[in-house]
Amino acid sequence: MSQKERKTPLVDELEKGPWPSFVKEIKSVDNPKAKDLLGVLERSYQDKIGHWKHGGLVGVMGYGGGVIGRYNDLPDEYPNVAEFHTLRVNQPSGWFYTSDVLRKLCDIWEEHGSGITNMHGSTGDIIFLGCSTEELEPTFAALTELGFDLGGSGSCMRTPSCCAGMARCEWACYDTMGLTHDLTMEYQDELHRPPFPYKFKFKMAGCPNDCVASVARADLSIIGTWRDEIQIDQEAVREYANSSELNVLEDVVERCPTGCMRYNGQLEIDDENCVKCMHCINVMPKALAPGKERGATILIGSKAPIIGGALLSSVLVPFLEMEPPYEDLKELIEAIWDLWAEHGKNRERVGEFIQRVGLGNFCDEIGLDVAPEMVIQPRTNPYIFYEMDTADY
Amino acid sequence: MSTSVKKRVTDIGPPHYEQFLPPVIKENYGKWKYHEVLKPGVLVHTAESGEKLYSVRAATPRLASIHSIRLFADLADEFSDGYLRYTSRNNVEFLLTDPDKIDPLIAKLGAEGYPVGGVGAAISNPVHTQGWIHCHSAASDASGVVKALMDELCDYFTGQKLPAKLRLAFACCLNMCGAVHCSDIAVLGVHRRVPKINHETIRTQCEIPTTVSACPTGAIRPTSVNGKQSVEVVEEQCMFCANCYTVCPSMTLNDPEMDGVSIWVGGKVSNARHEPMFSKLAIPYLPNNPPRWPEVVDAVKHLVEIYAANARRYERMGEWIERIGWPKFFEMTDLEFTKYHIDDFSHAGLSFRTSLHFRHQ
Ligand code: SF4
Ligand code: SF4
Ligand code: SF4
Ligand code: SF4
């Protein structure tokens, strides 16, 4: 079928409406790959089924990650998307760009691929969607010439990502972008050559608001927090109290989850009972700020359902100072990786590994002292694996 | 090849972010004092120095062509000295220092079809996955469902009409790229037919022991078909998770009539007030009905409207439901509570009620 004749009435419907249209995006590129992509999608809308085959082993030389192989199951009808691989391009921390660098990325992708991207993929990479096998190396060469590199895939460390942190947010309790760049550079080998039983993700959030969903989406969640008193500007509190927008008692004091606040013309916080939830700070940003003794909580193990069910990350280190060169953190990361790489089963995420071996044993093995902050409560189940050789309790 | 003259470089990592930061950010890095929402989609951050940064946030469809990225580059040159960023939810943000340029920028973005909003008590841009655009596992399309949903819900993005922020997410299979399982409302593609086994290809495409052990419920057994090694699936034990398909392309679950989506509610990731929580099942199945998925759009809109009308200020979907109780939620939303709503996997028992704390109506 010639390109021109192809009609796509079902997907065309999605050009209408107030929300930005991905169909318009695809149509905006004058490229045979983009045209066939639209054709395949129309076909899926008719058939109510996808037309992509399981990936294959493709990549750039020397890397075991960064490229996802993808083939179409109707290559005769849509030859231009018969090979439609994905390149994961490691984004700059915080997803900041200049117009200049974006244009250069576009030029590369116009020359070598479909002209279609995701800004960005779920893990945070720039996604170049739709590359033929033979264009992978030339695209990679052009990217590295521009100063970019590929991100992770498969059983690699996945591309770390972070919130804008100190670049724009007054609540950042550590430098999320700095740490993200640092870890990404330190662990290039783990990013590009799969050393693990399964994927390993990092997400850095600057405060307990967790704008990057670190607690739900990262094997290691590094979430900023503080451990001294919330900083209060009483004058600014009174301004909020006098404004019509906020009722300090109802909207702030009564919403505090621990009931540790009082307001009587003067805001008092019993900081020993504050659980650093951020609510009061979120609603009175001009009056309140996280304390000055800042760092991060390290949590481990979150994942989507595959294989043994979804997990949120749970506390591993209640508070860690976060200053470059982040030696304590890196020591911890490497201890975790050593243990899990050796004893984890194929396709077992670190969270599932911990479920299997027990958090207590896991901490023993990586040389970390256990702490009551790690659990909601001590166990209620008396089936205890007492160890015969430790007589001291 | 002409590139062969150049030395091949690897492992250089991403470019350092500093070269992409506008001067106002470089100077005030780590020294921001507070921020305000000027209007929907527009934030102003004030630094200790008194300098101000204006961020104008617009939705993108995540799937972006080089055409629209170049358009954003041009807009950045015109309005924000060439500086912009993306958010974790696929919004683009222009980073302005001149407040007089805010309204002209919003007007231009609007004219090009990119609505400004997604800040504060609004629906932000839904995170979503690849769907039929690119993935082999997809039980539904991603971009299409999200587009259909947001065409109906766009006013909740551009205005601030909700009790609190509402995070909407879509994933096209249980792999959940983008982990949508902690969203206020999550739409999740589901398969409902046991894997179809291709007995011809399985011996060459798959390792039988790996395939058998990939199944979390032990539903897959080695067998022989016409004297050749293959596997069989115990139907009653299959929960359609597609783990087998991930390791073995000869076991496909995709099915035009049986595939569709489920809807989950009440998750959150922030620690504000309530601890982070998973989303819970509200609707076990709705059909795929492209191009506009009317059943899904109606269901989500219904949930949003009931939440908007009944939750208290600052109360996220999950906090609201916890306050009123799940029986009341099902009553108010007129959704049927079925046996599918009761967990029966590994941690099932944790969700059974042990108390007599009912709100009898
Ligand atoms: S996670 Fe906290 S520090 Fe980071 S952008 Fe969000 S509110 Fe700011
Ligand atoms: S941060 Fe949360 S717990 Fe602490 S005082 Fe504010 S509302 Fe209360
Ligand atoms: S959620 Fe599933 S179907 Fe969707 S892109 Fe991810 S793996 Fe593919
Ligand atoms: S879909 Fe899941 S439960 Fe069903 S056979 Fe495959 S792995 Fe087992």
Detail the topology: elements first, then pairings.
The complex is a heterodimer of chains A (393) and B (361).
Chain A: H1 9-12, H2 22-27, H3 32-47, E1 52-53, E2 67-68, E3 71-72, E4 85-89, E5 96-98, H4 99-112, E6 116-119, E7 126-131, H5 136-146, E8 161-162, H6 176-186, H7 188-192, E9 202-205, H8 214-217, E10 220-226, E11 231-232, H9 234-242, H10 248-252, E12 261-263, E13 267-269, H11 279-283, E14 288-289, E15 294-300, E16 314-320, H12 327-343, H13 350-357, H14 359-366
Chain B: H1 23-28, E1 32-39, E2 42-47, E3 52-59, E4 63-65, H2 66-79, E5 83-86, E6 91-96, H3 102-112, H4 143-158, E7 168-171, E8 185-190, E9 196-197, H5 202-205, H6 208-214, E10 220-225, E11 228-233, H7 243-247, E12 251-252, E13 260-265, E14 280-287, H8 294-310, H9 317-324, H10 326-333
Bound molecules: iron/sulfur cluster (4 copies).
One iron/sulfur cluster binds next to helix 11 of chain A.
Question: Nutshell version of this structure?
Answer:
The complex is a heterodimer of chains A (393) and B (361). Helix content of chain A is 31%, strand content 16%. With 393 residues, chain A is an alpha+beta fold.
Task: Give an overview in words.
The complex is a heterodimer of chains A (393) and B (361). Helix content of chain A is 31%, strand content 16%. By secondary structure, chain A is α+β, with helices and mostly antiparallel strands. Chain A starts with 8 loop residues before the first helix and ends in a 27-residue tail after the last helix. The mean pLDDT of chain A is 95. By secondary structure, chain B is an alpha+beta fold. Chain B contains ten helices and 14 strands. Chain B has helices spanning 23-28, 66-79, 102-112, 143-158, 202-205, 208-214, 243-247, 294-310, 317-324, 326-333, and strands spanning 32-39, 42-47, 52-59, 63-65, 83-86, 91-96, 168-171, 185-190, 196-197, 220-225, 228-233, 251-252, 260-265, 280-287. In chain B, strand 5 and strand 6 form a beta hairpin. The longest helix of chain B has 17 residues, at 294-310. The interface between A and B is large, with 127 and 116 residues. The complex binds iron/sulfur cluster (4 copies). One iron/sulfur cluster (SF4) is lined by residues 256-258, 260-261, 269, 274-280 of chain A.
